[in-house]
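Reply to dn_fold:

You asked what the input looked like. This is it:
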Amino acid sequence: MSTHVAENGGNGSEVVKLTKKDFVSDQEVRWCPGCGDYAILAQVQKVMPELGLKRENIVFVSGIGCSSRFPYYMNTYGFHSIHGRAPAIATGIKTANPELSVWVITGDGDALSIGGNHLIHAIRRNLDINIILFNNRIYGLTKGQYSPTSEFGKKTKSTPFGVIDYPLNPLSVALAAEATFVARSVDTHVAHLQMVVERAMRHKGVSFVEVYQNCNIFNDGAFDMFTDRAVKDDKMIQIEHGKPLVYGKEHNRGIRLHDMHLEAVELGNGISESDLIVHNEKSPDSYLAYMFARMEYPDYPVPIGVFRDVEKRTYESLLEEQIQGAVAKMGAGSLEKLINSGDTWVID
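and this is what came back:
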């Protein structure tokens, strides 16, 4: 539970107590039974009270896809926009009212196909917005076509002989666009997912979170080979700031840098934790974070956690500074004068 002070008609203030229930809308949640989207929704609703904001100061923006139903289920302001344009809409909202907490909910198809251009530019501008990308490696809403993240060779309704596109890596895209906060989690790892969403929420600047999300209708078990409880200790690695990259049920495996390449090794026989990479999410460059993002099953354990968390001036703060500088130099300006400036004419 979290509290915040809300204005009370100018006659003082009152303490408003918010809980997860306050962020649950009256709309029926309409995802397929067993969909991973439910878990993501629950964790976002759970951390919302920690923002300390009134619900009317929070906005969820989505594009098109199964994930894009999200704004209906949040008892905040919301904007169900058009395919791939959620980052553009969020940019307008944040620059018009920087005090709002703005969240973009998108999927691998929505964000990385038609929305790729908008996603990249929202990230590189470092707007103080939170982007959560649901990655199920399939188009679910349109019934099972391959997406930009589908594996090479995968057979789908639109690729009966196998996908011949090489898949995009969402974290690589975000890091290449210089995202200041980059993380990954899994829909079934609810405690970890909650931690990652809360970290993203508290970051000042753009935060990009990829969530491996199971589509149990059109791509069931897409991540089971490394997220299943029976294998995850040996097939996944949780990266943590200031800690060596150790994994395995017996904590007997790790990742080291050898000849400028990452190498999965077993501890012992002359290899110790001191030989392993120590994760530094605050590093000013993103070289190692990018290398971690490229670690894929089955050659490496799949990493989850916060890959990067650095500080940089936000777009909206730079814009406001630029506007104030222009006003100080040239005056406040007049829209009427602007409209009537230059050549004008009358059409009878």
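Residues 1 and 101 are 19 Å apart (CA to CA).
Hope that clears it up.
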